[in-house]
Amino acid sequence: MFNWKDDRNLTLLVDFYELTMANGYLKNGIGDKIAYFDMFFRNVPDGGGFSIVAGLEQLIEYIKGLKFTDEDIDFLRNKKIFDEEFLMYLKNFKFTCDVWAIPEGTPVFPYEPLLVVRGPIIQAQFIETMVLLTINHQSLIATKANRIVRAAQGKPVFEFGSRRAQGYDGAILGARAAYIGGCAATANTIAEKMFGIPAVGTMAHSWIQMFDNELEAFRAWARTYPDNCLLLVDTYNVLKSGVPNAIKVFKEELLPKGYRPKGIRIDSGDIKYLSQKAREMLDEAGFTDCNIVASNSLDEFIIRDVLQQGAKIDSFGVGERLITAKSEPVFGGVYKLVAIEEENKIIPKIKISENPEKITNPGFKQIYRLYDNKTNKAIADLITFANEEIDESKPLKLFDPIFTWKTKTIENFRARKLLIKVIENGSATYNYPSVGEIKSYCQEELKTLWDEVLRFENPHKYYVDLSLKLWKTKQKLLKQFAD
Amino acid sequence: MFNWKDDRNLTLLVDFYELTMANGYLKNGIGDKIAYFDMFFRNVPDGGGFSIVAGLEQLIEYIKGLKFTDEDIDFLRNKKIFDEEFLMYLKNFKFTCDVWAIPEGTPVFPYEPLLVVRGPIIQAQFIETMVLLTINHQSLIATKANRIVRAAQGKPVFEFGSRRAQGYDGAILGARAAYIGGCAATANTIAEKMFGIPAVGTMAHSWIQMFDNELEAFRAWARTYPDNCLLLVDTYNVLKSGVPNAIKVFKEELLPKGYRPKGIRIDSGDIKYLSQKAREMLDEAGFTDCNIVASNSLDEFIIRDVLQQGAKIDSFGVGERLITAKSEPVFGGVYKLVAIEEENKIIPKIKISENPEKITNPGFKQIYRLYDNKTNKAIADLITFANEEIDESKPLKLFDPIFTWKTKTIENFRARKLLIKVIENGSATYNYPSVGEIKSYCQEELKTLWDEVLRFENPHKYYVDLSLKLWKTKQKLLKQFAD
C-alpha cells in the first residue's frame, strides 16, 4: 500500500571524478578488475555512543533503476573528455556487483562497514556518491531523532521540520529517518502517503488571525474538529488570553456528547514556566485529561532540561533542530577501497594517512555482534574477514586493536552477523521491512545496549574489536608503508 | 538547453495543519477570504551582514504544477477528518493567488518580505510549507557559499559536497544555490546537466590504490588525461611520495607536445604547511605554472586563516561545511499572515509575541532599496505599504523604527523596488534568468554594499527602515493589544 518511489533519473547525481576515473579504468584495461569498497564512518555525531543506520531501501531502489539514458550519454559526450568506448559501456551499463549491508535501524559504531560493495571497479566506484549521500543523510537524522526521543523519556516526539529541511528529500526522507529513530509521527503529509508514517497537525497562528478574535477562532475550531480539539494558545498571550479562552471554549460544550477536548499547544515563550501554569489552570477547570504539547526550537538538551525542571509537557513537536541535525549536520561516512581480486585471490588494500584515525581496515569483512546469553546485552562487535566463523561454544578472547594488552575473554554468548547480502550480481535479494517494522527493530536492538552506551553525553565507548587474523594483516600492511 | 524539471508530485509535501486549516476555512465560510502572507527571516546565519535569496525558480515551478491527483484525494479521504466538500474543492483546485518576490541572487536583510502572497486564504495558506522549504534551503546555501567565496579572495571555490548533503535535492539544488552564491564549479555532474553549472573532478584515492603504486597511477592518469593532469598527492605521504612522484611524472613528458600539467590536489594534513612546501618543490622543478588545489573540511574561517598565513593555494574544494551550511544549518524563514481584505479594503494584521523580535510588520508592503547616485552604494532599504511611491527628486527622511530619534535625510538617490510580480492570478509572469545570469547579478549587487556590511564577523548593520505610514500603523496595532 505504502510505496515510496522516486522516478527521477538521478544517474548523473555523481561526483564527476567517478566518471573520469571510470573512463580511465576502462582505458587502462582494468575496468573489470574486481574491487571491494567499505562504507563506514569515523565519529558518532554529537559525541554520542552509537549511530542508527538508515537509508538502505532508497539506496537499493536507486541501484535497481541505475541506467544511462541517451540524454545522459549525449551530455557526457559533449564534455569532450570521454572515449567513445566508455560512452558505449555506459549505454549498455548493467550493474553486476554484490552488496552487503547492515539492516536499517541497527545501532552501529565507528569503523564498522555499514555497506560492502564487491564488483568491477568501474561499477563499484560509480555508486560512491549515492551510497554516501543516501546513507549519510538518513543515518544522520535517525541518530539525531533517537537522541531527542531518548531525552523525552517516553513522551511522544513529533517531527515538525519540513519547512526548515535542506530540500524536498531532506523533508521527506528526513521524516522517514526520524520515524525509524523513534519519532511518533510527522507533520509532513506526504510521508504518511509514501511510508505510512502518521501525519498530524491542527492549526497555525494564522488560523487565529483569520477570525475576529482568539475566542471566535477557538470556537470555530471546536465546532469543526470536535475529535481533535487541540488549541494553539500563544498567538497573543498564553496565560492571559490563550489558556483562559481555551478553557472557556472547552467549558462551552461545543463538542458533541462523548467528545473531550484534546488540550493545548504552546509554541513560544518559556515552555517550562508556561506549561506548569497552564497545567494548573487546566486542572483547576477540570481538564486534567487535556494534554499540553510544546514546540519551538526544541532539541534533546532543552527537552531534558525542562523535564528535569518539572515542565508539564505531554508531547513535543520538534522542527529544525531535528530535520537538519542542527548541532552537527554532517554524518561523515566515507567509501574506501579495501581490497582487490587478483587471480581470484582477495588482496587486502590499506589507505595510509598522516591522521591515524583515517587509516582504513583492509580486506573483505564481516561484523559479528556478540550478545551475552544471560543479560541479552551486546558485549562487543568483532570485525573479521568475511570467511571467519565464530564458534559460540568456545570462550572467545577479544583485545583492543590499539591498546592490545587490554583483553577480555567471553563465554556463553551468541554471535550475530550484521552484514547481510542485499544485492547479488546486481539483483536485489532483500525484502524491505516497512518503516514501522524498522522502527520496532531499532527499539528492540537499543534494549541490548547498556545504559552507559545510550547516555548522550560522555557515553561509554562500545567495544569494536578486530579478529586476530584481521589485526595481523593490518599490521603487516602498515609495516610495509613504514619501511 | 539546461532545463531543470521535477516531475515528482510533491503536492502533499505539506504540513498537515495546512490541510486541517483549509478544511476549516471552507467549513466556516471564509475559504475565499483574501489574505496576504509575507515570507521573511529574522536573523542572518553565522552573524553575517546580509543573506542572498535563492530558490524562486523552483518555487514557481512547484506552484505552476500544483494539483491534487485522485490518489492524493483518496489518501486524504481515508484520514476520515475532511469533509467531502473540501475534497471536491481540492479535486478542482486551481491556484489563483498573486505572488511578488525579490529576484534570486539579491542580497537581503532581516524582516524584509522576500515573498508576498495574496489570494484566497485556503490557497495562500496551503503553499506555506513549500515556500519556506524551497526559499529557506537555497537561501541558506547561497548565503553560506558567498561567505566562503569572499574568504577565498578571488581564488575559485568548487562545491564538492554531494556525498554529505541532506538528501538528493540537498545536493542538486544546493549546487545551484552555491553557484548563485559565487562558487566557480561543482563536482555534482547532474547540476551541469540541469543548470549548466560546470562540473569538475579528477580522481579519488581509490584510483591510486588500483595501481601497483602511486607512480604508476600518476603515469596512467597523465596518459589518459593529458589536458587535465591534476594529481591527488596525499594517498600515502604528500611531501615524501605524492609531490615527488607528481614532479617525476610531469618531467617524463608523457603529455603530448603543447600540454602542460595542471597541478596537484592536497586532501588531508595541514594544507598551509603542505601547500608551501609543495609550492617550493614544484617551483624548483620548473612547474611554477602548476596549481595547488586544497580540499578537506574547509570553510570560510579556515580559508581566511591559511591564506593569511601565506598558504600557497590556488583554488579550494569545499564539501560538507558548504552543502549543509554546517556552522548554522537553518535559514529561519517564516510565513506570516499580514493582512486580510474586507469589502475590498486591506486590513493590516499583526502577530504579537512575548519575544519582541517575533512581532510582524503588518500590511501589504513593498521594499525600496535606496542607492546613492554618487557612490552607487546602497544606503538603506525602506519598507513601505505597497501603494506608497518614493519621490527621488526630494530629500527623504529615514528613521530607525526602534530608536526613532535616530534619523537621516538622504538626497541625490535612486529608489528601486525589490519586490516584483512573478505570479498573477495563478499564472507565472516571470522569465527565469539562467543561473549564470543570477550569479552575475548577485556579484553586481554585492558591489553596491559597503565593505562594512560584507565583513563576515561583526558586520555593520545595514539600515532597514519603515515608512512613517507603516510605522504608525504598526504602533496603532501594537497599542490595541497593549490596552
Automatic annotation (TrEMBL), chains A, B:
One of its GO terms (molecular function) is nicotinate phosphoribosyltransferase activity. Coiled coil: none annotated. GO terms for cellular component: cytosol. Pathway: Cofactor biosynthesis; NAD(+) biosynthesis; nicotinate D-ribonucleotide from nicotinate: step 1/1. The keyword Cytoplasm does not apply. Transiently phosphorylated on a His residue during the reaction cycle. Phosphorylation strongly increases the affinity for substrates and increases the rate of nicotinate D-ribonucleotide production. Dephosphorylation regenerates the low-affinity form of the enzyme, leading to product release. GO terms for biological process: NAD+ biosynthetic process via the salvage pathway. It catalyses: 5-phospho-alpha-D-ribose 1-diphosphate + nicotinate + ATP + H2O = nicotinate beta-D-ribonucleotide + ADP + phosphate + diphosphate. Keywords: Glycosyltransferase, Ligase, Phosphoprotein, Pyridine nucleotide biosynthesis, Transferase. It comes from the Bacteria. Residues 158-359 form the Nicotinate/nicotinamide phosphoribosyltransferase domain. Its EC number is 6.3.4.21. Residues 12-136 form the Nicotinate phosphoribosyltransferase N-terminal domain. It is an enzyme of class 6 (ligase). The keyword Transmembrane helix does not apply. Pfam families: NAPRTase, NAPRTase_C, NAPRTase_N. Residues 365-474 form the Nicotinate phosphoribosyltransferase C-terminal domain. NCBIfam families: NAPRTase_put, PRK09243.1-2, PRK12484.1. Belongs to the NAPRTase family. Catalyzes the first step in the biosynthesis of NAD from nicotinic acid, the ATP-dependent synthesis of beta-nicotinate D-ribonucleotide from nicotinate and 5-phospho-D-ribose 1-phosphate. This is Nicotinate phosphoribosyltransferase. The gene is pncB2.
